[in-house]
Amino acid sequence: MFQGETAITVDDKGRLTIPTSYRDLVANACANRLVIAYNPFDTGCLWIFPYAEWEQVRDQVNALPSVKAVHRALQMKLVGAAAIVEPDGAARILLPSSQRSAAGIEKKAVLLGMGNKFELWSEQAHLAKIRQTIGEDEISDDMAELRL
C-alpha cells in the first residue's frame, strides 16, 4: 500500500502535509482517519497507521496479558499514547507535541511508506539508521532466503 521515502517539513504549529502521492491512498484506506503512535522499537520515530489497520494492531496489543511489564510498556506506547488525527483541508495533520518531542521530530523529518503504515522519523535518527549497515552476524534465517 504505502512505500517510498519523502522529506517532510513540520510547520511551526507541528503539522505535516501528507504528500500528494499518498492522499488518495490514505482517503481510500481509512476515510482520512489516521492514528499516530510511538514506535516501541526505534527511538526517533513515530508510527502513523490508517485507522482500520490500527484497530487490528490495537486489539492484538490489548489482548496481551498485562501482568508482564513488557506487555504493559507496549500497550502504553502504542495504545495509551495513540492519537487519532484527520487531515485538514490542506491535507495537513497535527502531530501531538508530546510525541514530536519524545521522538525528537523538529522542522525536518522523513516519512517512509512501510506497506501497512508510515514511519515518521526525525531527520537525524533517520540518517543515523540509514547509515547503519547490516552485518553478516545479524542476518536471520528468513533474511538469508531473500533474493536481493
From TrEMBL:
It holds the Pfam family MraZ. The keyword Cell cycle applies. InterPro entries: MraZ (IPR003444), MraZ_C (IPR035644), MraZ_dom (IPR020603), MraZ_N (IPR035642), MraZ_sf (IPR038619), SpoVT-AbrB_dom (IPR007159), SpoVT-AbrB_sf (IPR037914). Its main location: cytoplasm. GO terms for biological process: cell division; negative regulation of DNA-templated transcription initiation. CDD domains: MraZ_C (cd16321), MraZ_N (cd16320). The keyword Cytoplasm applies. Keywords: Cell cycle, Cell division, Cytoplasm, DNA-binding, Transcription, Transcription regulation. It is found in: Cytoplasm, Nucleoid. One of its GO terms (cellular component) is cytoplasm. One of its GO terms (molecular function) is DNA-binding transcription factor activity. Belongs to the MraZ family. Forms oligomers. This is Transcriptional regulator MraZ.
